[in-house]
Design a protein that fits this description.
The protein contains 3 helices and 7 strands, in the order ββαββαββαβ. By secondary structure, it is an alpha/beta fold. It has one domain: 3-Layer(aba) Sandwich (Rossmann fold).
C-alpha cells in the first residue's frame, strides 16, 4: 500500500505509514522551512523518517505505476492556474487502485493570491462524477464520498449555500472533498 502527499510543503507525512511526500521544493528547502518554524514558535516538530520526491505537477505524469496508490492527499494545490485539472485527475485515476481515496482540503482564502483560479466552488468535480452534461472529454470516474464545508461567519446565515456557490465565490471558508476512484 502506498499513499501520496502531493505538494507537501512543511506538512510532511511519515514513511512508516507508507506516505511518499512530493513537492516542487527540494527536500533541503522543506527542512529549512521546518527549522524556521521551530525557531519562531520555539517548538520541536516531530522529526520522523519520511520519503520524498521532488516533483513538479505541471511538468509530467506522476512517477508511479498504474494501480499502485491507495490514497492521495493534496491540500491547496489544485487552485493554481498552471495546473491542468483534467490531465491531473486522469493521472490520479491511472495511478490509483480501484476504490482509492483522494482527499482534497481547500481553503478559499487562498483565492486572494494572483496565481490562483477564482471559480473554485463545491461543484468543481461535477464532471468527474457524472453531474455535468459536458463529459465530452471522457473524464475519469470518481465518486464523492464526502464534502465538508466550513463557512465564514457572515455566510452561515445564507440559505441555499450549495446553489449560491455556483455563482458566488468564497461562501465557504474551507471545503474538503473526499473522492473515491471508480474503475
Amino acid at each position: 500500500m502506498k499513499k501520496l502527499n502531493l505538494g507537501c510543503g512543511k506538512d510532511i507525512k511519515p514513511k512508516e505509514e507508507e506516505w511518499v511526500n512530493l513537492d516542487i521544493l527540494s527536500r533541503k528547502e522543506i527542512e529549512r522551512k521546518i527549522d524556521i518554524i521551530e525557531k519562531i514558535k520555539n517548538i520541536k516538530i516531530n522529526k520522523f523518517v519520511w520519503d520524498f520526491i521532488q516533483y513538479d505537477l505541471n511538468k509530467a505524469k506522476l512517477p508511479f505505476q498504474d494501480d499502485s496508490i491507495e490514497e492521495i492527499y493534496l491540500k491547496n494545490i489544485l487552485q493554481y492556474k498552471e495546473i491542468d485539472l483534467v490531465d491531473l485527475m486522469k493521472d490520479f485515476h491511472r495511478v490509483c487502485k480501484n476504490n482509492a481515496i483522494i482527499i482534497i482540503p481547500h481553503e478559499n482564502n487562498k483565492l486572494q493570491e494572483p496565481d490562483t483560479i477564482t471559480n473554485w466552488n463545491i461543484h468543481i468535480f461535477d464532471k468527474y462524477i457524472g453531474r455535468d452534461r459536458t463529459n465530452y472529454r471522457n473524464y475519469p470516474k470518481f465518486e464523492i464520498v464526502k464534502i465538508k464545508e466550513i463557512t465564514f461567519n457572515y455566510s452561515k446565515y445564507l440559505p441555499f449555500k450549495r446553489v449560491l456557490s455556483r455563482f458566488l465565490n468564497n461562501i465557504f471558508y474551507e471545503i474538503e472533498y473526499k473522492l473515491k476512484v471508480i474503475k
